Amino acid sequence: MQEQINQLFEWYERNKDSLHPIALASHFHFRLVYIHPFADGNGRTARLVMNLILMQHGYPPAIIKAAPEHRLRYYGTLEKASIEGDIEPFVTLVADCVEESLQQYLQGLGIDKQGDDE
């Protein structure tokens, strides 16, 4: 398992300047969950690291909501990536969550979606 973690960080170093930050964070999250290095808390840890990567690049955190429909999409896209090797639905999910966080921030600032003050 240590070798897999080392490979994950090597992958990150190779890709941190070439992948879009949302794709980078999503791929790191998926790869860490796939390795499953901890007895408990793998998903929480992966989401924390994913959000750290996003925030380091100036993006708001991707909040995966606890509502059943959100959790089903989250687990479904991770499963699709694991079984079929198709990570794009998971990247899209993360991008949607980042966009939702950004919209909440803008609303809090009194700015609508087009950037106009309300």
UniProtKB/TrEMBL annotation:
One of its GO terms (molecular function) is ATP binding. Keywords: ATP-binding, Nucleotide-binding. Residues 1-96 form the Fido domain. PROSITE patterns: FIDO. The active site is at residue 36. Coiled coil: none annotated. InterPro entries: Fido, Fido-like_dom_sf, Fido_containing. ATP binds at residues 40-47, 74-75. PANTHER family: FIDO DOMAIN-CONTAINING PROTEIN, FIDO DOMAIN-CONTAINING PROTEIN DDB_G0283145. This is Fic family protein. It comes from Anoxybacteroides tepidamans. The lineage of its organism: Bacteria, Bacillati, Bacillota, Bacilli, Bacillales.
